[in-house]
Amino acid sequence: MSAPARTLAVELEAVTDPVTAIVLERASGRRWMLAFVASVVLTALLGSGIWVLLVRGVGIWGIEIPVAWGFAIADYVWWIGIGMAGTFISAALYLTRQSWRNSLNRYAEAMTVFAVSVSGLFPILHLGRPWFFYWLAPYPNRMALWPQWRSSLLWDFFAITAYLLVSIVYFYVGLLPDLATVRDRARSRGRQVFYGLLALGWRGEARHWQRFETLSMVLAALAVPLVFSVHSMVALDFSEGLLPGWHTTLFPPFFVAGALFSGFAVVLVLGIPLRRYYGLTDLITEAHLDKLARLLLAVGLIVDYSYLSEVFFAFYGGDRYEIAMTLNRLGGAYAWLFWSTIACNVVSIQLLWFPRVRANHAALFTISLTVVVGMWFERFMLIVTSLYRGFLPSSWGMFYPTLWDLGFLFGSIGLFCLLFLAFVRLLPAVSMFELRKSAAQALERPR
Amino acid sequence: MRFAVFRPPSTAGAPVAQIFSPRFGTVVKLTLVVGVGLTTGIVLAWRAFTWNPHSIGEPVEQPVPFSHKHHVGDVGLDCRYCHASVESDAVAGIPPVSTCMTCHSQLFTDQSVLAPILKSWRTGRALHWQRVYALPDFVYFNHSIHIAKGIGCVSCHGRVDHMPLTARQAALSMRWCLDCHRHPERFVRPQSEVFSMDWRPADQRTLGPLLIKSYHIDKRRLTDCSVCHR
Amino acid sequence: MEFLRAKLAGKQGTQFWRALEELLEQPQALQCLREAVPQAARLDPVLDRRSFLGLLGASLAFGGLAACSGPPPEQIVPWIRRPEGLSPSQPRFYATTLRVGDDVIGVLAATHEGRPTKLDGNPAHPASLGSTDAMTQAAILELWDPDRSQAPLRHDAIASWDEFLGQAAATARQFAQDGRGLRVLSGRIDSPTLAAQRQEFLQRYPGARWHQYEPVDDDAAQQGTAFVFGKPLCTRHRFDQAQVIVSLEADFLATMPGHVRAARDFAVKRSPTGVPPTMNRLYVMEQTLSLTGANADHRWPMRAAQIAAFVEALAAQIGVPSTRPPAADIAGGLDSAQLRRLKALAQDLQDHRGTSLVLAGAAQPPTVHALAILMNEALTNVGRTVEYFESPEPRESSTDSLRTLAESMGSGMVDTLWILDANPVYTAPVDLLFEERLAKVRNTVHVGLFRDETAARCTWHLPRAHSLESWSDLRTYDGSVSLVQPVIAPLYDVRSLHEIVAFLLGSSRADGREIVRSTWRGQGGLDEEAAWQGALREGVIRNSAPAAFEIHTEPRALPTEQRPGAQGSLDLLFQPDPTVWDGRYANNGWLQELPKPVTQLTWTNAAWVGPALAARFQLHDGDIITVRSQGRSLEAPIWIVPGQAADTLVLPLGYGRRAAGHVGERLGFDAYGLRTSASPWQAVCSIAATGRHVELATTQAHHVIQTGEPLRAGTLLQFRQNPAFMQAAEGAPASLYPERAGGEYRWGMSIDLNSCIGCSACTLACQAENNIPVVGAREVQRGRELHWIRVDRYFRGSPEMPTVHHQPVPCMHCGHAPCELVCPVGATVHDSEGLNVQVYNRCIGTRFCSNNCPYKVRRFNFLQYADTSSPTAKAQRNPDVSVRSRGVMEKCTYCIQRIEEAHIVADRQMRRIADGEVVTACQAVCPAKAITFGDTADPATAVSRQKASPRNYRMLEELNTRPQTSYLGSLRNPHPALQDET
Prior knowledge:
Oligomer: heterotrimer
Largest sheet of chain B: none
Order of helices and strands of chain B: HHHHHHEHHHHHH
Strand content of chain B: under 5%
Mean pLDDT of chain A: 90
Low-confidence stretches of chain B: 1-15
Shape of chain A: globular
Largest interface: A-C, 69 and 77 residues
Distance between the termini of chain A: 16 Å
Radius of gyration of chain A: 23 Å
Number of helices of chain B: 12
Order of helices and strands of chain A: HHHHHHHHHHHHHHH
Low-confidence stretches of chain A: none
Largest sheet of chain A: none
Structural class of chain B: mainly alpha
Strand content of chain A: under 5%
Helix content of chain B: 40-55%
Number of strands of chain A: 0
Distance between the termini of chain B: 76 Å
Structural class of chain A: mainly alpha
């Protein structure tokens, strides 16, 4: 556009209008409605599943001896991994002053919060007696008992809780200035009250901004290490076991990589339709998508390396159980699982080397979706292939999922979508104040 | 210049007036804090109160207002006269009606409070006493071993010789059990004093360890889960 | 078959495999498909018949939530007068006797406050010596079975005993003069009292007849002895005297009467003792794999005809006076391999004159039995390893007896028929048309525990008291008699068998005790009350076994067997089911869920086929086939049994019950549908695949062992050369952690795989002792069975002639327990005496412990399995063991309740627990005494001595779990000349 037109006001409007419009002016629209109904249905499925589970027991799933962990744990690891990318984008890139992240971090953080909340359901539900989950917490009780500190499950419990709390707080704090903006633009009384309450009386005073900056910095600094701790703990849930395929010190970094991988994929899966449907193409630009695609490829390669080294070390280590397990993984009853994982997570992402593919949104979307699916396969493969053939052939067995297993998987997806759809309609999906700030700084820069 | 960024960008029409006064934010936060505090407090209180069917020190309604105070305190019966299997068995045993009748076929037969006993004796229909000391089914408590190792009745059941109506004296929580299982030397008595109501140790600090030794109490396994749970 | 051999060539001799699927396995890709596709096919929610338990689950879930508000108030109901010496919590034991299958076993019944909760063997009883088998263990569940019939039924309407007494009196009057038209049908009579009552009955009604029918009969043995001795005799074997045993399809370790005792005596000779160490040697010739065969040193699968031919040749070899001229061509029918075996075996027998033993199985024709007797005589074994005696009770040929009854029923000669504790409508050979003919009988009375198929078709059904509720006496395999006394008052309005027969004899007020007592007045030296009481207390009447029969045989030419066996047809062999027997235990959940020793199947039977046959017909486990025999046919799923003779089909009896109770109906197929009275055991048949398939509930994993050797085995020869040849070269790996400070004791277990015969009695004893619930076929299919001790079974060698090994696997109680490390709430922890304890009430069910258990001995309550509703189920439970709710992990605890009990008793008396004071349930029941338990801290204890043996090894010790349960490797003792065969 022409130079005189590039006044600050215009720039600011260009940011603020479309974003607030999504929340304040726009009607829901048919596609949103359809998606919403679909996710409500799936969420209801999850709800009924939880009810049946509490009434009948975890036996409604396909788990058995020897495969005592099944979909629930796979879903849990999958979701918590997805959650990670959001924090990484918003916190890590924030600390490293990657200002391009400003247009992504808001919905990425939302994704984190929702994904982690959803994943948090599974560790509790998969317990034989879910109503006693609080025994994991070290609190003074009439049994005079403490939890068992050597168990990684315990530390996992702490890690998840801490991570969930921090990411919720970080998300909400980040929202405050924009909530204020929305509040000020809201016409109807109801919205004014709603956003007014949420904005916690934000008035954009310098004092507010100063505290805000400090707090964001502190929270970001807290969030980044938490991200890594969470995924290391999740990894230790497995590597603490002595099963071939689990008992390896390489797991923590691999899990972090895997988490980032699935996370970026989901950011893309959510971002592409979001910008298209709500016309945010000027805020979430091609450049953003390209950067994300590159990131996806990068971490993808790390994940692929982890697959390679797992197989390598199995043979290099020379432990006969490890070797047997690996051969079994490559050629046993669940080989199809392994190879589809490879197809999704190794083969598909190689396309991202080509700029034309990265520029093609449809392709990008599909590849990201494939990766998301592939990551679930990987989690499930990891669990089942190590369990179904243990040390004693006399107790080998197969895992047959039930409808409820699938119900919980898709139900959780439904719940996630429900939350995200609500978020898009109720909260500003893009961080306006940060974009405005960078816009302003861009103008200040002497040309 | 930076200021501009903070000004709410003026859209069509005048800026909307604030509907909340600055102070209101504080009110909201306070309400949240208080609300959370209250709910947790209520839950904890409810839990504490409803844990046991009846609380400590509260006499339990029984078909016959049996008074340990009278039988133990005044008459001076030995515990084992009624709770015969306490030395040999897991349970101390509620006496059969025949035990009551050894005296009450002659004594106070006209007393109305004794009517249920006599009726039960005549009709052969059993009395239904309310349990005062109830343990969960997964706890396997054995009286005989505690007696054998010098734990006095009083230690758990309190001064029944002062109880007109029997009431629970101990929390019966696992913590309470462990208090003793972790430090038995604080509670063990000489074999002769196990059934005595008013025995006071001269110096438990020196006596305790000696008794532990003489009773061959293996403190290592006293806190094993398998000792009480099977 | 060809590619099978090819596959085999690839596999080393020492490699174990668990099932044929592995060897018959398709190329990898197909295999994946076969195992992977069912996942799609089997997507279904667990909406099984247990759905009602969901509600219980709910109440529990909310019980769990409401746990915050504590338990409901309890009440205490004291005695009016406390019975003498009745302790509130200590069990009391009563000696009594049970008839299980066709065996009679003396037991001690443990009662808690009057409730029988557990049965242990009676050490004084010759058939038990303190041990029992699985079926005996399950008898306690039968007592508490809610499906037992509880009142007399007339035309299926509840009636009173008085009404029936009227009926009985009428019958008595009607047949007062001669009794023609009055018949009684009972099982085999092995009760002196019942025999006496029969005598009285026949005197009273001269024209009447008393038939005996036992579906699992011993007719062939009777005829065999009759041929040799001129009269039918019973046989008692002395396996503790036999150095060389030749079993002609005689399953003396599992199904023959006296098998519990046999297992003990066999094991005694089995342990490699002395210098140089010696063992007995067992040769088995059989059509299919039996437990006895599984324990054999030489097991030769043969078709029926081959066995007969081989036996004749063998008899000739060891100089039995020629029974069929010309003797020359007898060995003609044998191929070179068989001749080689023949010579070796004959030589071995000759070398052990007087210490060898030849015995034949129930399915073998009388001639084989006769030859076995003659061989024992020729080898001078009679009086040493085998004795014959005359049964004081009248014996009849089951099939003949039933045939005559059926025929006279058909011709309308039977007016009144009393069926005593038998179920002929279900068990009678199909050609006798018993069901139709029963309809022709005007007045029918059925006496039994359950309202079964026969009861449903009789005018009257009378509930009989359970053996644990009634007085009687029973004669066991060796002829000695033991008394049956009630250990609990009848739960329902029932009468004992003797009392009911007494009604028939005209007495209206019969007292079971008096009836039995009167039998023994004037005999057995039980006249004075003291002696009687003594016999009751001891559980067996001293010197009541008949003396051995004086031998006088005159060789006669054997009748030539008319052998079925048209060319191209298959041999068809019937056999009793190892758990539900002839069907009488169909309603017993414990037995239904017990993995059947040879097949590892639960909740069903299947047609057994050999690997070759399966390959020929392209059949896999569970494929349904049609079996045709003598114009009749039935459909059955197949199960491939390694080591079964080629062209032989085996049909286990006892399934396909139409009226058994809630548990036992509509399971499996009814093999009686092909059984004829002409040849009840052996027939010919043809099969055809239907193309349909059914998933059978099995606890067996279909894979070879690729890694490690959980089970170590070798030969006596190797053992002599190097006793420690089974022990790992590098001992237990070192540990980074310091040894845990031990307490006063260190409990441990040693399991001798050389003695273990794989009978699974331990599994059931454990189930009874530890309140382990039944989960049902569906859950077993899903791999959710709850047995705390399982018996793994491994094959070695070729599928046609495999060597079989069994390995009981309880919790290993690891010193470095992987399970303890991963439990977040410390629900599984080590106690100071080396036990790895599981604290049910602390467990929240993460199941990580099970994932991390290399031995997979942990069991999980995926649903609410324990029946918390029905009162009888509660009454059976062991009050010293918690009942686990759903969502809780459970496992073997070394019977912690017994350890604690011993601890309390010993600590009260300020003494140490003596060796042998703590006996685990599995150890107590084991017929072969393969399990030893005790304090391993004290080197003097039996278990420490066992662990000191050179055969001692720890499973998966390379994982450094330091298990407290260890094994003694298994040895076989092949004939030196036939070494190459194994």
